[in-house]
Every structure is written in C-alpha cells, then in structure tokens.
Predict the structure.
Amino acid sequence: MSDVPEHDHIIDTGKSHLTLEELGHVQPGMARVMPEVGARIWKCFYAGKAKNKPLAAFQLKEAVNLMEMGVLLRPKYTDNMYKFIEEQVEVVKKAINDEDWDTFESSFHEMIDCANAYHEVYDKPYLKWKIPDMPPPDLDMTPRG
Ligand code: HEM
C-alpha cells in the first residue's frame, strides 16, 4: 500500500513517478533562479556596451521573466520584486529602447546597487552581485548588420 492519497495525481516524468506535491517541492527557489538572473543581466550589460539593442532588450526581458517565475514560487518577495522591475529595471529598459547608452550605463549601475540593497534587506549582505570584468564568453555581442 502506498501512502499517496487516492485523489492525488501521479506525474510520470519518464524516469520517475511523482505526486504533484513532490513535483512542487523540486521547483526552484530563489537560490536556483537568481544565478540565472545574474547570467542574463551580465549578458544584458555587455550587449548594451556593444550597442546591441535587440540583444540587450532580449536579455533584460529574460531576466524579468526569471524574476517573475521566482516570485511565483516564492511569493514573499513579490512586492519588492515588482517594485524593482517597475522602477529600476524600467529605466534600463527605456534606455535600451531609446539607444541612450550613457543613461543605460548609469541606470544599470543603479539597478545593481538596488538589487544588492534587496539582498541586504533579505539578510544576505554577503550576496553582493557585480558585473564580471569580461563579456560572457558564450555569446557574440556584436550587433548584426
Ligand atoms: C539585477 C538584479 C539581480 C541580480 C543580478 C541578482 C543576483 C543574485 C545572485 C547571483 C544570487 C545568488 C548568489 C549565490 O548564491 O551564488 C542572488 C540571491 C538572492 N537574491 Fe538576487 N539578484 C537580483 C535582484 C534581486 C531582487 C530584486 C531581489 C528581491 C526583491 C533578490 C533577492 C534575492 C534573494 C532572496 C537571494 C537569496 C536566495 C537564497 O539563496 O536563498 N535579488 N541574487
């Protein structure tokens, strides 16, 4: 006899059979989502430095998608995350759309300072994200055409 309630749904992953509850438990939390945010934000920065508007816009949008996924799974961060997206990220997004690369750079640094301030708010002052010194090695940053 299994201790799985009869009404529970069993999901066949192809390699295992999991209850919805078990599947819920293995969804990523902030500790898994945030490093992916960092990777996108790194790409966004160097795409902007290369004046590559579509790539910078794409990477920023993907970073926001991850942040939204993060708060779906960890709702306690929702208010501050949306405040961050609507305030800090929005300024960077507008600078990319306007191809205003000076504003892009200054607002980008402000966005990072703010992200690290949130890390402090959540009792993780030792998580101080910084832009890596070199562009990401796995993607060509140069604009097409
Ligand atoms: C540009 C924006 C951001 C970047 C690049 C970023 C980057 C990161 C990175 C790389 C980590 C993981 C560090 C590690 O474990 O190695 C992290 C952790 C974390 N971040 Fe962010 N972050 C950003 C914005 C935010 C915002 C806006 C919030 C909250 C509103 C937030 C909340 C957290 C929390 C709670 C953790 C700790 C997760 C855990 O291990 O429990 N971050 N962040």
